[in-house]
Design a protein that fits this description.
With 148 residues, the protein is an alpha+beta fold. It is built from 2 helices and 10 strands, in the order E-E-E-E-H-E-H-E-E-E-E-E. It has a 4-stranded antiparallel sheet with strand order 1-2-3-4, covered by helices on one side. Strands 5-9-10 form a 3-stranded antiparallel sheet, with no helix packed on it. The protein has a 3-stranded antiparallel sheet with strand order 6-7-8. A hairpin with a 2-residue loop joins strand 9 and strand 10. The longest helix has 15 residues. The protein is globular and about 40 Å long. The termini are far apart.
């Protein structure tokens, strides 16, 4: 038996496989928000929850999104690892997932069609239907009208 606390915080199904999510920050606080994806005991991926800067105002360990959001982020990461582009399009149904993916602030009005995201120069606004792609330094908005 390991002397470290359990890190498994969720289980989910994806394409007929059962996956487990381990929160690495439980045993290693400096890894708060980093999650590993396991299938049959083997690590198959990892991702990090991005918190808005304001989440750290009162604590160094902000609350993680619920397990449904974490499972959706893991599914997204598995798709990226399989070759899909690391991008998301904001819809009303994925606001919480996209907020955790890019560090957005989810407004009190869940029917809102905008998401505010911390960026070095302040805040950026992502609007419903807009696609965002992750980059080495953060993210960039894509003009999907010009993509073929």
């Amino acid at each position: 038996m390991s002397s470290t606390p359990t890190e498994t915080i969720a289980r989910f199904e994806h394409v007929g496989v059962t996956y487990e999510l381990d929160h690495l920050g439980i045993a290693q606080p400096e890894q708060w928000g980093q999650l590993a994806i396991y299938a049959d005991g083997d690590m198959v991926g990892e991702f990090e929850v991005t918190f808005p800067a304001s989440a750290f105002a009162d604590t160094d360990r902000p609350e993680l999104p619920d397990t449904d959001v974490l499972a959706e982020l893991a599914r997204h990461q598995l798709a990226v690892d399989a070759g899909a582009p690391d991008r998301m399009t904001l819809e009303l149904t994925n606001r919480r997932v996209m907020a955790a993916w890019c560090g957005g602030h989810e407004p009190d009005d869940l029917g809102s069609d905008v998401l505010l995201v911390d960026v070095p120069a302040g805040r950026a606004v992502i609007v419903k239907g807009q696609t965002v792609e992750r980059t080495e330094t953060g993210f960039r908005k894509l003009d999907t009208r010009s993509e073929a």
